[in-house]
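Methods — Computational structure assignment.
A single polypeptide chain was analysed. Its primary sequence is given first, followed by the predicted tertiary structure written as structure tokens.
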Amino acid sequence: MMPSMSDPAVAATDIRFFERLEAKLHRDFENEPLEDCISHAAEKTISESLQKEREAQVLEFLRSISLDANRPGFAASVFRCLARQERAGNANWRIEIVRSGLASSSLPIRDAAAQAAEEWGDPAMRGILEKHSEPVYWLDEYIKKVIATL
């Protein structure tokens, strides 16, 4: 059974865990640019963090980073690496993060959300993409291509 999150010692441990995870992701992106179709160290960092007993907490932490429009470059990079995890979360979690990403005011986050929809390929992604009205031409064209392949 997992200890209560109201326990100050547990809360401090969790805070340190997430601070270290975020710092590691920053280092990963500083050391190597994220490129399409090329494995990246941040993918391994994310994968290893998801193998911990606190997977649900890690997923929510990564979700909050991925949707942070105040840090669009970092957010989109984390989102893209998260999308490269074959089955991050369950289908509902993936649908909600893509839906939230498409609703972002940040173009890089919307782009990462569209890429995630394509990567994960869940059948419901098609409907989410079809309902999205994208004002940026090139991203709208990409979304149409993704819809056609789902």
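Note: The first helix runs from residue 8 to 31.
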